[in-house]
What we know:
- Helices cover 60% and strands 12% of the residues.
- The chain is of the alpha+beta class.
- The protein has two domains: 4-152, no CATH class; 155-230.
- Strands 2-1-3-4 form a four-stranded mixed β-sheet, sandwiched between helices.
- This is ATP synthase subunit 5, mitochondrial.
- It is found in: Membrane.
Amino acid sequence: MMSSRVAQSTLRATARQFAAAPRAAALNGARTYAAAASPDTKPPIALYGIDGTYANALYTASAKASSLDQISRALATLSDVFKKDTKLPAILGAPTLSMSDKTQIIQQLQRVAGGPGKDDILKNFLATLAENNRLSVLEGVCEKFAALMSAHRGEIELIITSAQKLDAKTLQRLESAVAKSEYSQGKKLKVVSKINPDIVGGLVVEVGDRTIDLSVSSKIAKLNKALTDTL
């Protein structure tokens, strides 16, 4: 089991790597970090961007400490908080946050996520984000860590985007239909429901790297293009 000091060292080393060259880290950091990990702790899929780099670092540290499931549950809880509190991203990204503010935020986030946990990995991770002025990427880290865990469990995400919230029965019917199709690739589906009023109506269904756009907004765009090309 990895000590909290080693876990924090791993996260800090990764943070320093792209703090010195943020653009390079955003493009190559995830791949570089994953390559350095052992087979048992290597992230199962390649992620990119600052949030992807941090998600990879957290995954590796959690895997070494045998606490992937615990950290996954904690981040899922934080992800729900972001969905309920739309002002939270702006608060975390505020450039005027003092170290005292950041300390209080970390304590609150940790409390919401379920306490210190095993080896204080989450606490150390949040501290690393704060020290590098990266608390604003936490929401993205939660999403990308969930993607890593889905891959780790052999799942494939079924993302269903609608203009309004869909009921459980409709989501179940969609999941069943996709599970029977070639789009599921024979893997267990993890349903992720998203709401985007901009699509007006209909659905946008994403399975792995495939997208089925049945939204009203897409149909309107195609109609506008057809009219423009005709004129």
